[in-house]
């Protein structure tokens, strides 16, 4: 209990000192987390960065950079942003995952960094079909800054040490692909892929996002039943035709026996 209280007190003190130090700065960015100089954004929504300027020439230009390069020279930003000098703002109307990075605002030789972090978005197929005894593979597609992925099945958190499950990396993101060898009917159900990053750890009221896929397991002979059904229909049809032909031939033969013979 004392350790938790001490950790909370130290965290509060560090935040207080960071805010106090910021109050004396010429540049004050609109951080979401002051202590770690972070700004969070949702992909495909506006990204708005601002720097309040104190004790400086109001006509002095505010210079914006991304990863040490002026934003006007960054190819991926060309034609996608606007600067509002009167409000000291840098705005991307429709942000993408690659708009994250280390930004900075500069004026009169003073600079402030802003760690811009894209919140995580995850997607899995809504349904996954697999035949009993075969291998299941589900990929969790993720966007966001340095994402961390995890999986659950029911109330079980899946790891590489969980039964027959194997988690693999995809596009440099660990745990992106969930595989399961020799699937059984008991493996049916809902599988969830959870995504989180620094926005969840340091942001306020940031929820861990997830998406769900429903795994449907077909029996080994599931594909055989329709074929057998067709074969049965064809066989029945052949029997009906054979019986009909036999009866017709018998009827014709009886009619020929009753016809009067010519003298």
Write a brief caption for the model.
It contains three helices and 19 strands. By secondary structure, it is α+β, with helices and mostly antiparallel strands.
Topology record:
Elements: H1 2-23, E1 27-29, E2 38-41, E3 47-53, E4 63-66, E5 69-70, E6 81-84, E7 89-92, E8 101-107, E9 110-118, E10 121-123, E11 127-131, E12 136-139, E13 141-143, E14 148-153, E15 156-158, E16 165-170, E17 173-180, E18 189-196, H2 198-202, E19 209-218, H3 224-258
Parallel strand pairs: 2-9, 11-19
Antiparallel strand pairs: 1-3, 3-7, 4-5, 4-8, 6-7, 8-9, 10-13, 12-17, 14-15, 14-18, 16-17, 18-19
Structure description:
24% of the residues lie in helices and 38% in strands. The protein is built from three helices and 19 strands. A five-stranded mixed β-sheet has the order 2-9-8-4-5. Strand 4 and strand 5 form a beta hairpin. It is elongated. The N and C termini lie far apart (125 Å).
End-to-end gap: 125 Å
Number of strands: 19
Radius of gyration: 34 Å
Shape: elongated
Mean pLDDT: 85
The helical percent reads 10-25%
Tally of helical segments: 3
Largest sheet: number of strands, sense, barrel closure: 5 strands, mixed
Kindly estimate the percentage of residues that lie in beta strands according to DSSP: 35-45%
Strands ordered across the widest β-sheet = 2-9-8-4-5
Task: Determine the structural class based on helices, strands and strand pairing.
Answer: alpha+beta
Unreliable spans: 3-22
How would you spell out the order of helices and strands? Answer: HEEEEEEEEEEEEEEEEEEHEH
InterPro entries: Ig-like_dom, Ig-like_dom_sf, Ig-like_fold, Ig_I-set, Ig_sub, Ig_sub2
Pfam family, one: I-set
Transmembrane segments: 223-244
Keywords: Immunoglobulin domain, Membrane, Signal, Transmembrane, Transmembrane helix
